[in-house]
Amino acid sequence: MDESELEAEFRKFGIDVHDVEAVDPVSLSYVTAYPGEEVNHMEMGQMLNGLLDLARDDRWEPTRVEATVLRFEDEVMNRWYVETEWFEDLLQYRISETEFSTNVLETLDEDIQ
Questions:
Q1: DSSP alpha helix (H) spans, 13-96
Q2: Alpha-carbon dihedral 78, 80, 36, 44, rounded to 10 degrees
Q3: For 64, which of 22, 25, 35, 92 is 20 to 30 Å away at the CA?
């Protein structure tokens, strides 16, 4: 899946893509629809569920995803990532959705100001 296809898929998930590179790792920056103090976990979940659906449909090969959440186009709000293994483990029922979510949420960079 190339950048334009991946960007189109993210937009279908309701994500306002600022920039995306569909290499390994997938590098994504997006402008949040919820520019509060903390990253909106539901917005993260929408994106991750979309990627998992694409993987289940054999339309996307799981790889590491590195996301930068922008409060505005020029203001970084936070960063998070997902390891390839976490996608694979969830898809193979080796970890639960709760474990997957916990792993991802623990990657939020608390030092971003």
A1: 41-56, 84-91
A2: 150
A3: 35
**Residue position matching structure tokens 């790792």:** 25
With CA atoms as reference, report the closest residue to 82 among 51, 38, 42, 40.
51
Burial of 4 (0-12, 13-18, 19+ CB in 10 A): exposed
Distance in angstroms (rounded) separating the CA atoms of residues 50 and 52? 5
User: Residues 50-71: pLDDT tens digits?
Assistant: 999 999 999 999 999 999 999 9
Q: Which residues of 37-74 are buried (b: 16+ CB within 10 A; e: fewer)?
A: eebeeebbebbbebbbebbeeeebebbebebbbbbeee
Q: What ranges do the domains of the chain cover?
A: 3-105
- The CA distance from 73 to 37, in Å, is 16
Has this prediction a pTM greater than 0.85?
A: yes
For tokens 């409060």, name the residue: 71
Q: How far apart are CA 110 and CA 106, in angstroms?
A: 9
Q: Give me the sign of the Cα torsion angle 48, 113, 33, 10.
A: negative
